[in-house]
Each structure stands twice: as structure tokens, then as C-alpha cells.
Amino acid sequence: MVHDRMDLVSKLYQPSGWPRVLEAASGTPSGGPLVVDLDPTTFCDLACPECISGKLLNQGRFTPERLAGLAAELVDMSVRGVVLIGGGEPLAHRGTRTVLRVLGEAGIAIGVVSNGTLIRESLEELAEYATWVRVSVDAATSETYRLFRPDRRGRSVFDKVIGNMRLLAEAKRGALGYSFLVMTRQEPDGRVLSNHHEVLRGAELARDIGCDYFETKAMFDDRHHIVQVPETVLASVDAQLREAARWADDTFEIVDSSTLTALRSHVGPVQPKEYHRCRVAELRTLVTPSGVYVCAYHRGDPAARLGDAVTDGLADIWRTSDRGIVDPSRDCPFHCARHPSNLALHRIGPDTAAPSEDDYDPFI
């Protein structure tokens, strides 16, 4: 059976995670998260003007020893999946290679969200242990890449990133994704810059590289609201995606994100929520050098901080923290990819039939 990698609700109904899903659905604290987003570092070698984490960059990193210890703690907590992400660029930390080995050899699924500049340095571990690697490219030419993803000297490293992706495509066991964030920017002189015209070319390049999927997403502002785009831009993107669909087959997928779907639905930047507790927070959490947070949408938010993973063990933080400190009806007016999962968790009860199908994707 082919599963939709973006269908987060269906992923709740898997046997190995079901006991903790039932705990979360009941409204009681779970025994531990099923998935952990882990920021190894806040350092990044790029200087993207639209970076949503720009204010949080270059403010700390775990020591290699503590990062290795965190990996061991995640194994002991029976976490099913870990996403190495940021904040910063996860592959910029020399300890990330150890994390990949420790988690991979323990059978934990690993996702990596990267800018692709340092893939070569961790190629062996990524190829061997990563369940998937998603590279944020957001362009299909070197010049557009320079406008939206410049390095710290304002240069384009597009050719390096594409070359690294080709290396990984040849060696990988897991999936490789090409991520394209549709962006527009108004310059001080009034000019409007955009990358939307390169969606089709990006999809074609992704297929040529040997990627397993090409994903198009809408941009967030610094409060995680979806940035609205002109109808002409959305129409252009959709036309290009329809043309790209001809390349889709058993080895290559064109993926729509929930953010792009939200733009098409004209729901606006605000997503109201009537429930007061995020039950997904009992199943997924964020660990960073600055703290452990309820979720990635609240990265760096003191009001959503659960503890300090630099000094304290993750199991102790989980046992003593209150994941209910965030009230979605009050604190999460933005688009949340796991809002449908929360609605599903509010419907699941003790009489809900247990999953009969095998596990297929732990990244809920």
C-alpha cells in the first residue's frame, strides 16, 4: 500500500505508537514522545534574508559529548523517530555524525532537514542511517539561489549544494527530498523579487538529481502565519506543478505541503483552534541548545520552554514538565500542520479500534 507522506493523521494509527497515542488522546501525560525534533546547533553557514529562525541563530550549541548523551537518552526513552533540524544547520555540528550512528544502529528512524552545504562531510552516515534527508533549495538557478539563500559573503553555493545532493542520491538508502519554499520580497527601491517562476525547473532538476520527491511550500512570517501571495503567483505555481506532475511515477513524487493547500483555500493567515490543550505535544517535542520546547512552532519562546537539556536529562524533563503550558486557542493562531492530528486525537477514545496495519512511517 502506498502512503501519503503528508497525511499526518493516518500516521497516528500505527501499532508501535498506539499505546502512547491513546495516552495523549485521553488528555493525560504520555510516557514519552514518539518523535523528537533535535537542533544540534544554532549555527548556520548561510544568511537567508527570509530565515524564520534568524533571531535565534548563532546563540549556542551542545558540546559533542552532550549531543552523544542526548542520542543515548533518546534510545532509552524508546523514541521512534528523530528529526535533526534547526535553528541552525544540523550538519554544521561535528557531533551530528555520532548522533546519526547511535540512533541508526538502535533502529530509530532519522529525518534530516538541511541546507545541503555540508552533506559531503557526513555522506557516509547520511547514506547509511537517514530515513530521509530534505534539502531546502528554494531555487533552480544559481542566481535566484544567491538572492534568497546567500552565504555569509553574499555568494551563491548553489552548485555545491546540487553536487552534494547528487552524491547522496547515488549512495542513499533512504529518501532524498528537494524542498522549494515559494518566496517574494519587496526591495527598498520597490522592486518585487520572487523565486516562484522556477518551480517547474526545480522539479525537473530534482528528478535529474535522483531525488525521491519535490515539495513546494508557502512561506511563514516570524510569527508562523502563512504569508499570503498574489493570485498571479499562486496560479503560476499551480500551473507549473500541473506540468511537473507528468514526471511523477513510482520513483519520483510531487508533494504539496499543507501550507500551499491553505493558500489555495483562501483561509487566510489565522487558523483558529477551539481546544485548550495540544495533545500532539504529548507525542512530539523540540530539543535545542537553548531549551526543550513544547513544539518547533514555539522554538525560543520562554513561555513554551519545558526544561534545559544542556544540564538535565530528557527523561527527567519529560517526567516533571507540563506540556499544557501552551493553550492552542490562545497561543497558536498560526497555521499548524498538526492541527488535524489534534482534532483526531480529540476523537480517539478507549473504544477506538486498534490499528491492524503494520508500521510504515513514525514521523507523526
From TrEMBL:
Residue ranges crossing the lipid bilayer per the database entry: none
A GO term, aspect molecular function: metal ion binding
Highest taxon of source: Bacteria
Family matches, as Gene3D superfamilies: Aldolase class I
Radical SAM core domain ranges (all copies): 30-264
Keywords (A to Z) from UniProt: Iron, Iron-sulfur, Metal-binding, S-adenosyl-L-methionine
InterPro entries, sorted: Aldolase_TIM, Radical_SAM_PqqE_MftC-like, rSAM, rSAM_sf
Name of the protein in its database record: Radical SAM core domain-containing protein
Source organism (scientific name): Streptomyces ruber
Taxonomy of the source species: Bacteria, Bacillati, Actinomycetota, Actinomycetes, Kitasatosporales
